[in-house]
């Protein structure tokens, strides 16, 4: 390898990686790692499967590649595995794709820690010293991972935490991140005389990506809860959750139960960039009604002149509105829609047959625009003068139009049951509500609280938030 310059190694790795023809698929989450034969045969799996397969191929070709991973994101409910190329100068270059190798690594989530899977047992750690006398969480139990966070270009800092809630008889404390199942340990430190220090804690995104590039109203910094474990594997919080920034500045989220406020909640999960982009694709289009199939005479009823919200929206129509056809038309660009239709004067959805311009008529996914499921969708890009809609069979009295962009269905949904919690030594309920509109209002919420909204009807994507100046700030 000394006979090659770094760029040659990187170029070779990039060329091989882009030709692996492998696809990650969420359907494999929770499954054991696939073996090499399965990876070659099916060419799809989790990000961990992909990373293992890529490492096998690279190593077989003499390119030194590691298996690195984020155990849990700081802003999402799972983790991620990827590869790193070891360079002759001793440095490494993490990658998820060819572009990462050519420029720099961009991971999608907020990174609290990055570890590397080693063949060698890490016997010189405090974790290994107490492996037979203290409970060690599963992440660290095999003692074969190495902390490589400081190898990567992410904002990070050290922090010392004082125990203010519990003082257990333990030698090791952990820094955890939120998960709907429970707080998940991502880092450890020696617990001694009521305090613990943690090193190289990630507080943001790779390559210093700004939170605003990930979606709407993401908070700056990382959310953590320091804990210890008892011998019965019970998790005990050492202090209140806190927001940690790269400067080392940290703010504890201890709820002030003497000062309460009224909050309005719009979502249970942050609106990520991709969801915003789906909604933006409807901008510039409009809905119109007609009694002619070619819409030679029509009435425009709603122009999408701004990015719509990611839930069902309605447009009230004048009393006596009577038409046979409705369509959505856009002169240029893409469209991404989850649902559309009209309701009659009895507030019932009017069934209709699909209509579309000639280019779209054979597209099987077009049926998703009127199937009663906002999570199914129709998405198309790059065409001009495109339209699709519904034929009600005869002129029909219409009370309102409804539509929804392609969505993750994490907005507040009328009819669903929700429960709001705040953290005060444990999650404490602020009550259940059945949503009547796309907003929930809660009164008497303690200020400076970490909040968590659960949908008890459906779904699993939920993240904690704080409330600041009338906005949900996501962590």
Strand-pairing-aware structural class: mainly beta
Largest sheet: 8 strands, antiparallel
Helix-residue proportion: 10-25%
Low-confidence stretches: none
Q: Give the overall silhouette.
A: globular
**How confident is the prediction overall: mean pLDDT?**
94
Features:
mainly beta, 475 residues, 12% helix, 7 helices, globular, eight-stranded antiparallel sheet
SSE topology sketch:
Elements: H1 6-18, E1 23-24, H2 36-42, E2 44-45, H3 47-60, E3 65-70, E4 80-86, E5 92-95, H4 98-102, E6 115-117, H5 126-129, H6 138-141, E7 145-147, E8 156-162, E9 172-177, E10 184-192, E11 195-202, E12 222-229, E13 235-237, E14 242-244, E15 250-252, E16 256-265, H7 273-280, E17 286-290, E18 298-303, E19 313-316, E20 322-343, E21 353-356, E22 378-397, E23 400-405, E24 417-423, E25 427-434, E26 440-447, E27 451-455, E28 465-468, E29 471-474
Question: Would you write up a description of this structure?
Answer:
The chain has 475 residues and is mainly beta. It has helices spanning 6-18, 36-42, 47-60, 98-102, 126-129, 138-141, 273-280; strands at residues 23-24, 44-45, 65-70, 80-86, 92-95, 115-117, 145-147, 156-162, 172-177, 184-192, 195-202, 222-229, 235-237, 242-244, 250-252, 256-265, 286-290, 298-303, 313-316, 322-343, 353-356, 378-397, 400-405, 417-423, 427-434, 440-447, 451-455, 465-468, 471-474. Strands 8, 9, 10, 11, 12, 13, 14 and 15 form an eight-stranded antiparallel β-sheet that branches. Strands 17, 18, 19, 20, 21, 22 and 23 form a seven-stranded antiparallel β-sheet that branches. It has a five-stranded antiparallel β-sheet with strand order 5-4-3-6-7. Strand 1 (23-24), helix 2 and strand 2 (44-45) form a beta-alpha-beta unit. The chain is globular, with a radius of gyration of 26 Å. The protein starts with 5 loop residues before the first helix and ends with a strand.
